[in-house]
Amino acid sequence: MGTKAHFKMMADYHLWAYQRLHQSLEPLSDDEYYRACGLFFKSVHGTLNHLLLGDRVWYGRLVGELFPISGLDQELVSSRPELTEAMFTQAQCWIDCVAQLPEARFQAALTYRNSSGDEYTLSVEQLLAHLFNHGTHHRGQISTVVTQLGYSCPEMDLIYFQLGI
User: Fold this and answer.
1) Total structural domains in the chain?
2) How many whole angstroms separate alpha carbon 58 and alpha carbon 65?
3) Which domain, by its residues, includes 53?
4) Calpha distance 163→165 (Å, rounded)
5) What CATH number is attached to the domain comprising 80?
6) What is the pLDDT of residues 23-74, one digit of tens each?
């Protein structure tokens, strides 16, 4: 599998995993959803907002349209349904973006400033690898909370996506 095909699969997986995760959140009461539960970004809602923020920041860096933030815990969307829709929309933007990238662009350097103003350079493939791994990391945290609350959470491993299960 080539680099572009790999990241196209990862972008598709990113949306698929978000969809599965959000389905598992439907039974949570608002109290369970918004309550601080020991996550780094406090609540399920805070962690989902962080995921959307990360997706938008990295997308902006890649396409040259910076997304200004006040902090990594910034709340972008307060409503559950609107946050779900915003996450799905942004994930679709990743699918479209990766599909349009020429193969050579994956190796290209991208220089950016982090939220503290420090400058870094990495390749587009490193950016994408981080972005999709970041989503997996925080989805795993949320799925732990969901199961601790007594609800079931779907399998979101990449292999299940690949097998179409």
Assistant:
1) 1
2) 10
3) 3-163
4) 5
5) 1.20.120.450
6) 999 999 999 999 999 999 999 999 999 999 999 999 999 999 999 999 999 9
Phi, psi (degrees; rounded to nearest 5) at 67: -110, 100
Q: Give the Cβ contact number of residue 7 at 10 Å.
A: 25
Contact yes or no for 138/3 (Cβ under 8 A)? no
E strand map for 3-147? 109-113, 119-123
Give 84-128 pLDDT, tens digit per residue: 999 999 999 999 999 999 999 999 999 999 989 999 999 999 999
The residue count for the chain? 165
Query: Pick from 94, 85, 99: which is nearest to 14 by CA?
Result: 94
CA nearest to 13, candidates 105, 112, 135, 113: 135
Structure tokens at 5: 């095909």
Can you read off the two tokens belonging to residue 86?
């915003």
What tokens appear for 136 in the block? 């997996």
Q: Please, what is the angle between helix 3-25 and helix 124-148, to 10°?
A: 20
Cα distance between residue 80 and residue 71, in whole Å: 20
